[in-house]
Amino acid sequence: MDENIPRVTPRQSATFDAYTMSEIRRAASTGIYDIRGGGAKRVLPHFDDLLFLGASISRYPLEGYRERCGTDVVLGSRHASKPLELKIPITIAGMSFGSLSGQAKEALGRGANAAGTSTTTGDGGMTVEERGHSKLLVYQYLPSRYGMNPDDLRKADAIEVVVGQGAKPGGGGMLMGQKINDRVASMRSLPKGIDQRSACRHPDWTGPDDLEIKILELREITNWEKPIYIKVGGSRPYYDTALAVKAGADVIVVDGMQGGTAATQNVFIEHVGQPTLACIRPAVQALQDLDMHRKVQLIVSGGIRNGADVAKAMALGADAVSIGTAALIAMGDNDPMYEDEYNKLGTTAGAYDSWHLGHDPAGITTQEPELAERLDPVVAGRRLSNYLQVMTLEAQTIARACGKNHLHNLEPEDLCALTVEAAAMAKVPLAGTSWVPGQTPL
Question: Is the pLDDT confidence value at 334 over 80?
Fold first, then answer.
């Protein structure tokens, strides 16, 4: 080769990048699909693509902390005689005992209770620790029926019927055998140490008419006291919301694909569902078309991280939000203090997602006693409460800047979008223009 000819810098394919090729090699070596926890890691339109239009001359802001900005929300007032009254519009999503350690479930209850909000059981039943430290506990009623019994339904403060989840709409959950110890096996009526995969649909109903019957059954079991939530993955939010309302739901939970999971196929997490941002306005539109907006409450989940996300979700029409992954991080998950141990697991702090294996150094997504004992539920609960308080203060700060005396008074008119995609999904104008893609002419 002529040394005088300049060498061309090798160029890696955008289609076959390093990660994609590593996945091909892994599949070729093992013959099985990849399983992991967490939510979608691909870049998606999200709340960061929206900005608030603070008050100036045309709008009048509220003065700092001297003028009140309300954060309270009532969930389930449509039919339930005992709706949930929360101090803040940020709830804790369902994460099961089995997926999480007993210490982590206790910490979630402690943190939510201190902040004046609710937490949720997740799959696998209700633990004594969680019920004992949660003033407001939502019981998840899933296709698996693991741990379900009428007594626990009556002990709960609300019931969430899970039809779908953002990370895996149309798919069931997974729990690897190494996390099914004696207690988990007993609660779920499973053999110890054997992998389990939950059903992807409820065994006793196949459509909205059957769902209406199921909701009535749950109301009769709980004497019409408990609010009934319906949780759907963010696939067809308009029709799913409308059908859930017609079936009699008090609250709708819409979970986008940035929402996490304890374990499912990676291809599911990254390629099924819609971004959270794309799900909110269709769900709100369905409620408005049925004259049920604010009468049936809408909770949005999937990638909520800070007070700005909370405020933006509520400006788009949500009544409250729910957090899962963020709550785990607040309690200590993926903490750099465990970097050496994450390295030994073949990953790094901030990227660890092998929650299904049960080797979490932080003691959160594990059933190994020596690891679980690392998590002090009192300290972790306090950290979670602090985080919820900060999120609430951030959301209030934004609402005041927009001249609103309650988070529920935020509206789409307070927002603009930085990208065409976000403008189209959120149905707000592209920044610097009056153009809403698909709504107004250029």
Answer: yes
Between helices 102-115 and 377-401, what is the axis angle to 10°? 40
Q: How many other C-beta atoms lie within 10 A of the C-beta of residue 336?
A: 10
**C-alpha of 90 from chain center:** 11
353-383 b/e (C-beta count within 10 Å ≥ 16 → b): bbbbbbbbbbbbbbbbeebbebbbbeebbbb
Torsion over CA: 242, 246, 252, 255 (sign):
negative
429-to-51, 150, 291, 310 alpha-carbon distances in Å:
11, 49, 25, 20
Q: Token digits for 83?
A: 């709706």
Per DSSP, the three-state class of 313 is helix
Q: What is the mean pLDDT of residues 371-383?
A: 98
CATH top-level class of 46-410: alpha beta
Largest CA-CA distance found in the chain, in angstroms, rounded: 87
Overall residue count recorded for the chain in this entry: 442
Backbone phi and psi for residue 216, each to the nearest 5 degrees, phi listed first: -65, -40
Q: Are 103 and 370 spatial neighbours (Cβ–Cβ below 8 Å)?
A: no
Tokens matching residue 311: 């405020």
Tell me, rounded to whole angstroms, the distance of Cα 405 from its chain centroid: 27
Starting from the edge strand earliest in sequence, which strands make up the sheet with 228-233, in order?
Answer: 90-92, 320-323, 297-301, 251-255, 228-233, 158-162, 137-141, 119-120
Mean pLDDT of 357-367: 97
- Terminal-to-terminal C-alpha distance of the chain: 56
Whole-number pLDDT of residue 1: 59
Q: What is the reported pTM?
A: 0.96
Region 198-226 average pLDDT? 93
Q: Where are the domains of the chain?
A: 46-410, 412-442
| Closest residue by Cα to residue 418 from 56, 58, 54, 52 | 52
Q: How many other CB atoms are there within 10 angstroms of residue 241's CB atom?
A: 27
